[in-house]
Amino acid sequence: MTAPSVQITSAGAIDSPRGSLLGRSISAWRESTRRELGIPVIAGLPVVGAGHQPGFWHPGILAKFVHARAAAGADGTLVHVVVDHDAVDPSLVRVPIRRNGRLAATTHRFGTAHRGEAAMSLPSFSPRRFDGETALASVDAGLARAADALDAARAAPNAARQTADAVASLVRRWCGRAALVAASDFLSTSFGAALVDEMRRDPQRCADAFNRALRLEPRAAAPLRAGRDAELPLWTLADDGRRTRVSRSMLGEGRTPRLLPRAFLVGAFMRLA
Fold it and tell me: Lower Cβ count inside 10 Å, N or C end of the chain?
């Protein structure tokens, strides 16, 4: 199978990109997006971001944030993007245990039961402590620190942010302080509003452009449905907190569902800001 050729045109230096998008320069969109999301910018220093769903990470995810801090430097800005609208259970953690004299693992849930809702739909919680026998004393200590961090973050608006705040406090010794940004807030920015306006204006063109881009790497996502009720790269939340795909008919006159970016748009925002 022959890989498709991809032509990439440089937009210039990362800190001063050239070109325009949706009627404004990319640099102006970047400036307004950072400001509206509360991302601190220090003149002359880099802004470097990494993102993941809320939860207790394995070391490979931690390494991503350690690398981002190294790229930002000690005084630059590290942005921690919390993909809070993914349908994950943020309070789960795998625990090494001993069973019948052998090493094994079990899953502990610090919070309430998860039934497929977006993490941002789950309420914050008082953490449930693990009461079993772990494999090592260090595991006991780690679980206690995690529970303490979750307890300290109980004032968060939802379980996704509570867990993200707790994890950020636990990894600070390796990553330093980070600016936490919820991916669910991306479309509330001026750039997000401009994107949604363009989707409303020509949803079929949006779906076609998405599907053309997907041909470069078909495994990256599922194609959007085309036709009279074209599908858009957006989610909204149903009454039960689960995610629902958005189509043209859902954006009709007088309809204002809360819109959330799907993975491609999350990536686009991270590259912009």
Answer: N
